[in-house]
Design brief:
This protein has about 300 residues and is an alpha/beta fold. The chain contains nine helices and 13 strands. The strands form three sheets. It has a five-stranded mixed sheet with strand order 3-2-1-4-8. Strands 11-10-9-12-13 form a five-stranded mixed sheet, with helices on both faces. A hairpin with a 4-residue loop joins strand 6 and strand 7. Helix 5 runs antiparallel to helix 7 and helix 7 crosses helix 8. The chain starts with a strand and ends with a helix.
């Protein structure tokens, strides 16, 4: 039996056939449409990916235990609805109901960072811990929280949006409508913006960090980036005090360039400093597949719960 994991991102919708022990046996992706409408719901593109996974993995729907979807934004996981997604411009999309018209298996949806966090907790760098925080540094900044082995979403819809804490009052405009959010400073989008302002060139995050070794202006950009990220992570740790903080997304590929100064920031700025328990900080291990594997893990857990409750 297999699980199908779908990871919706600002650039692409990825999907994979995942075994119950977290191994991807087939994966594929299509570009995310720039503007979805009521006439062309995002569910249509997700359906295309699911069909492609079934065909590519050479499996039938009868071999699939269920489908899990990781989606950015405020997700009503209980009712299967995308309430709001600022980076893909979606509102009140009943994704689960739309997909159930085509796929007669359990379908679940959750925030993409929540899914990635659960994937790392069950199968990746968070294995063996009870409490982890997962911060994704991509087009936006997502946050996934696992406490006592379960995803923590808050009591209402749209909780755990770690990227939308304000770290600079009246600061940079964020896509959520507020100013000064963590996402407005430490997403890949923000890093590219700040580098362009500094040197007048459009550079990738990888190029920015590489060139910063010799370019003074870009070094100031990356130093500021790491400082802002440290502020956000210290805030998160002070609230949740997890055992482990994991970094994912495109920028996490910088590895020790990030984790070493961030570890120092935690030691210097967390409440209680070294008198308190300072969590480890690491780069997540599942890479770009964390979302797919995590979405499948969310589905597997929800399906097991539904069976036990039924």
């Amino acid at each position: 039996m297999y699980l199908i994991g779908i990871d919706v991102g600002g650039m692409s919708i990825k999907g994979g056939a995942v075994t119950t022990d977290g191994k991807i046996v087939y994966k594929t992706a299509i570009p995310t449409t720039e503007k979805y409408t009521e006439q062309y719901s995002i569910s249509e593109d997700i359906r295309k990916v699911i069909d492609a996974v079934l065909e590519g993995a050479n499996i039938t729907l009868s071999e699939v235990k269920g489908i899990g979807i990781g989606q950015p934004g405020s997700i009503d996981s209980k009712n299967g609805i995308i309430r709001y997604s600022n980076n893909i411009s979606l509102e009140r999309v009943p994704v689960v109901a739309e997909l159930k018209r085509y796929f007669d298996v359990p379908v679940f949806i959750n925030n993409d960072a929540n899914c990635a966090a659960l994937g790392e907790y069950v199968f990746g760098a968070g294995k063996g811990y009870n409490d982890i925080i997962f911060v994704t540094l991509g087009t936006g900044v997502g946050g996934g929280i696992v406490l006592d082995g379960s995803i923590f979403e808050g009591k209402g819809i749209g909780g755990s949006e770690l990227g939308h804490m304000v770290i600079v009052e009246d600061g940079e405009q964020c896509t959520c409508g507020r100013k000064g959010c963590l996402e407005a400073y430490v997403s890949a989008t923000a890093l590219i913006r700040d580098a362009r302002r500094a040197v007048g060139k459009e550079l990738t995050p990888e190029e920015i960090f590489s060139m910063a070794k010799e370019d003074r202006e870009l070094k100031e950009v990356t130093d500021s980036y790491i400082k802002r990220l440290g502020t956000g992570i210290v805030n998160i740790v002070n609230i949740f005090r997890p055992q482990l903080v994991l970094l994912g997304g495109e920028i996490s590929a910088q590895g020790e360039v990030l984790t070493e100064p961030l570890t120092e920031s935690l030691a210097q700025s967390c409440f209680g400093k070294k008198k308190s328990k300072i969590p480890e900080i690491r780069v997540a291990s599942l890479g770009n597949e964390a979302g797919m594997i995590g979405a499948a893990a969310v589905e597997g857990r929800n399906a097991a719960h539904s069976t036990a409750s039924g």
